[in-house]
Each structure stands twice: as structure tokens, then as C-alpha cells.
Design a protein that fits this description.
Elements (H helix, E strand, L loop, with lengths): L1 H19 L40 H13 L3 H14 L4 H13 L3 H14 L4 H17 L9 H17 L5 H19 L3 H14 L4 H13 L3 H14 L4 H13 L3 H14 L4 H13 L3 H14 L5 H13 L3 H14 L4 H12 L9 H14 L4 H10 L1
Helix pairs in contact: 1-2, 2-3, 2-4, 3-4, 4-5, 4-6, 5-6, 6-7, 6-8, 7-8, 8-9, 9-10, 10-11, 11-12, 12-13, 12-14, 13-14, 14-15, 15-16, 16-17, 16-18, 17-18, 18-19, 19-20
């Protein structure tokens, strides 16, 4: 309710600001009425000049920036874009307006205009570290969102160049924010290295960021995620545990930590952590879904299905992992129609994950009741899994079975 009230106050400030800055029109004095007399020639009078209406003065750019920040924080990126653009029309080199506009354009997937806006910002304000970081993020998001990444192959190298510029600018600074800004630069480098598939460099970058900013739970989350991605579950657990300690109310940290505990075999400790994450954020699809994953790994099928179904209702397109585990539940129950439907969604949304293709193949290899096996589709999906991971032993054995 507070945020909604703040938005109304900001909107009112814009309106009132415009009204306050509009010069009032001077009142026209009443003209005396001439008395009726004997007929005589009326004296000649000079007609009053026409009054030109005063032109309203536009509110200052700061008002639009404040409104843009409010809308951006509310996730209303269309409205934020309009407000920030209005601010830049009043003050073309306003750093806050350009930064907000560029970030809003990225959220709206207007990547080319976003790059232009943020380049303009860093050219006009060479000491703006946030501008360099936002520009690096825009390069990454354009790369991630491209349907044909061959057209944006240079984006990640450009992002690293921008971050080098950001580091140079930050090293010239003094004061308490220097290490904070450097940690942001290194954290962003970690993201770029991850996109390049360089796990070792990503870990080094996140470790450097964490050294500069040791209590930051987001950096600790990123470091743990990369340890897990490179197969180091022990270090991943340690890093995620530190993230939970640093920010106990963050549901992402706790949900991921719970999942890693379950994958390590410690389901006794994992399940209460996952349940707490879901309680902290009952409308957060990630937290709710990971409670379902942990429940599945804990062999609690009823809770797993309930939580996973709720997660995909909350966010149907973001987490293929949850369709995958629903498919696993369906396979366990020999409900092959549902298994094929859920695993097809998982494989479509998570097209680079070999496990999703393998289990989809397994659902077609099997038959139950009125659902017949389909060895051709099974073979296609096993081949797809092997294309993604040539050493995937389960897929190799499955393909040999259906050939």
C-alpha cells in the first residue's frame, strides 16, 4: 500500500508542479458603466488588446525521473520508459534519465536503442560506473535474447571491454564506494564468462567480487551456482549456505540451498529449508517449485506434485526444471500421456539440457494401457540428448535399445 501511495504522490507532484509553474492570468478590472444622458456622440475609445493565454511550463526532468524510478521498481517498464524518455527530452544529457531509459529499453527487449542510449550516457558521463555496467548488461541481454546468436557473436567481447573501462574508472575513485563498485564490475564479468562457457574464469571473477564485498548474498549465490555448474557440489553448498546466512529472508538463496542439500543426499535438512523458502515467498515460482523438487527427491510425491503444479501456474515459461520433475512423477505413476506432455514442455523450454531430452525419449520408449510405445520418437530424443552431451551414458544405452 505504501508504494501505491507513493506513486500517486509522485503523479500528483507532476501535475501540481505544472500548475504551480504556470503564470496566472491577470484578472480584467470591471469597466464603469456610463450614465444615460441626452443623446450625444459617444467618445472614441481604444479597444482593449486581446489577451494571449499563457503557455503551460513543462515539469522539470527530475519529476519525470522520479516517476520513472517508481514505475521501474514496480515492474511497469512501459510506463518507466515513457517517463524516462520525457526526462531526456527536457535534459538530453541527464545521467539518471539516460540510465533509467537504457535499463527500461533492455527490459522491453529494445536492445539496439538501449545500446545507443547507454553508449550516449557513458560518452557524456565518463565517470558513471552504473552506466558502464548497464551497457555491459545490455550487450549480454541482446546475446541471450537473440534467435540467431551468430548475429551477435561480438556482444560478449564488447561487454568485457566495457567492464574494463568501468574498472579503469572505478580504480581512479576514492572513498568507501570504490570496493563496492569494483565488486559489481567483477560480478558482471562472472556473468559474461558464464555465457562464454568459461566456468573457471567465472568462478575466479565471482570469487574476486566476493573478496571485495564479502557480505553480498547475490555474489555468494552466483559463486555457488558456478561451483554447482562445474560439478563441485561441496563448494556450492558452502557458498549457498553463506548466502542464506547473509540474507536469511531471501527465498532464492534458501530454495537453491535446499535443493543442493537434497542433491547431496541430505533430504532431512533440505525439506525444512525448502518449506521455509516457500513460506517466505508463496507467490515466488522458483521458491515454490524448488520445494516441489526437494519433495520429489525426498520421495514425498504428494507434496512434490502440489508444489510443482503451483509453480508452473505462477510462472508457466521460466522454469523447465519444474515440468521435468512433473514428468518424472508421471513416469513413476505410469501416466505416460501426462509424462510426455510435461517432458515435451521441459525439453522445449530447456532445449540445451540433455536430461530433459533423455527422459522424454524414455516416456516414448515405454507403453502402458492404451498408450503405445513410439520407438521412432524415443530414438530421436535419445539422439538429441547425445548431441547435447556425447558422453551421456544413459542415453547411449537407451539408443542402443531402440535401434
Amino acid at each position: 500500500m505504501k508504494r501505491r501511495t507513493l506513486g500517486l504522490l509522485l503523479a500528483a507532484a507532476l501535475i501540481n508542479g505544472a500548475a504551480a509553474q504556470t503564470p496566472p492570468t491577470a484578472p480584467v478590472p470591471a469597466q464603469p458603466v456610463a450614465p444615460v444622458t441626452a443623446p450625444a456622440a459617444a467618445p472614441a475609445t481604444t479597444p482593449a488588446p486581446a489577451t494571449t493565454p499563457a503557455r503551460p511550463v513543462r515539469p522539470p526532468a527530475a519529476n519525470y525521473v522520479a516517476l520513472g524510478v517508481f514505475y521501474y521498481q514496480q515492474g511497469k517498464f512501459d510506463e518507466a520508459y515513457v517517463a524516462f524518455r520525457a526526462a531526456t527530452e527536457i535534459e538530453p544529457n541527464n545521467s539518471e534519465a539516460l540510465l533509467g531509459l537504457g535499463r527500461s529499453q533492455v527490459k522491453l527487449r529494445l536492445y539496439t536503442p538501449a545500446l545507443e542510449t547507454l553508449r550516449r550516457l557513458t560518452a557524456a558521463d565518463k565517470g558513471n560506473v552504473s552506466g558502464y555496467i548497464a551497457l555491459a548488461q545490455a550487450y549480454q541481454q541482446q546475446f541471450i535474447g537473440a534467435s540467431d546468436r551468430a548475429t551477435v557473436t561480438g556482444n560478449l567481447a564488447e561487454a568485457l571491454k566495457v567492464l574494463t573501462d568501468a574498472e579503469t574508472v572505478t580504480n581512479a575513485l576514492t572513498g568507501p564506494d570504490k570496493n563496492l563498485n569494483l565488486s559489481k564490475v567483477w560480478n558482471e564479468r562472472g556473468y559474461v564468462f558464464k555465457l562464454q562457457g568459461d566456468g573457471g574464469s567465472a568462478i575466479d571473477a565471482f570469487k574476486q567480487a566476493s573478496t571485495l564485498n564479502p557480505e553480498n548474498d547475490v555474489i555468494l549465490f552466483n559463486l555457488g551456482d558456478m561451483y554447482y555448474a562445474t560439478g563441485n557440489l561441496t563448494q556450492a553448498l558452502d557458498s549457498l549456505q553463506q548466502a542464506v546466512i547473509a540474507n536469511p529472508r531471501d527465498s532464492y538463496n534458501r530454495a537453491y540451498y535446499a535443493k543442493l542439500l537434497a542433491l547431496s543426499g541430505n533430504t532431512t535438512a533440505a525439506k525444512p529449508e525448502a518449506a521455509q523458502a516457500a513460506r517466505l515467498s508463496p507467490t515466488n515460482a522458483y521458491a515454490v517449485g524448488q520445494y516441489g523438487v526437494v519433495s520429489y527427491l525426498s520421495k514425498d510425491s504428494a507434496t512434490a506434485r502440489l508444489q510443482l503444479n503451483q509453480a508452473v501456474k505462477l510462472d508457466p515459461l521460466r522454469y523447465p526444471e519444474f515440468y521435468y520433475y512433473l514428468g518424472r512423477l508421471d513416469l513413476d505413476a505410469a501416466d505416460l500421456r501426462s509424462a510426455r506432455a510435461n517432458l515435451t514442455r521441459a525439453a522445449a523450454l530447456g532445449s540445451t539440457t540433455p536430461e530433459y531430452a533423455y527422459y522424454l525419449g524414455l516416456s516414448y520408449e515405454r507403453g502402458a494401457g492404451s498408450v503405445a510405445p513410439d520407438r521412432i520418437k524415443a530414438r530421436e530424443n535419445y539422439e538429441r540428448a547425445l548431441k547435447l552431451s556425447p558422453s551421456y551414458k544413459l542415453a547411449q544405452e537407451a539408443l542402443a535399445r531402440v535401434k
